[in-house]
Predict the structure.
Amino acid sequence: MNVPGHTLTRQVIAVLRGRQYLVFYAIGLYALSFAVTVVAAWLYCHRPIGQLLDGARSPLLDAVAGPSVSILAVFLVYLAVATWLRAGYIRSLAGDFHLRPRDAGQFLRLLGLSVILAIVYALGGAALAWGDQGAGARMLVGALTVAALMAANLALLYADYIVVLEDAGPLTAMVRSARVLKGAFAASVLVLLVVTLLGAPGSAMLADAAKTSLARAMPILVLWTIVPGAVMFVADVTLLVIYLNHRMSDEVETPGNG
């Protein structure tokens, strides 16, 4: 399925205008994720915040590397709360405003997917750290592992939308997400690339400021919560429009549908 660029842009702008208030929802979700990552990093190594921001990893990776019951508890509570709110957020993007999943089944399906994604992110962080500590073949293996996990992350880009909007199980959603990616590869990569490029400079700036003074870092911290949350909102809308276009195209092409 190929949607012309100008058509996709118009659709995204229309959704952004109609759902613009959800940017605060996205900012809240990002702030929650950011806070939990820093708290888990502090529980893991009890370093100054500047060092934590410079080397923060996946909370799951910190819990396993610890090992720490407190980090694992923080991670599990966060995972449940974030999954609950994420389901409501996706439902709100596609329809009326919601703060929760439709039912327990939807929550559990999305929670299962969230666990899989958390493991993928943790493995990526572990592979990157392992490769950075070595040289030669070890560094090459680490880089290849990270590349493979990034490809997996890209393939799962649409999975949570599919779980929530199609009531699909995690494995089914993963397969369908890869199909959506195949039909809109360039647009999907572009969205992920923009999010990554916008995130890296701000993270480095925040870490450098926090190393000298926490008070100096506070304005950047506030900005760093708002800007990435807003960027994620635009990215979510774009990916959702791509997914809905792909779903509509599949329904039209399926024999017996009208």
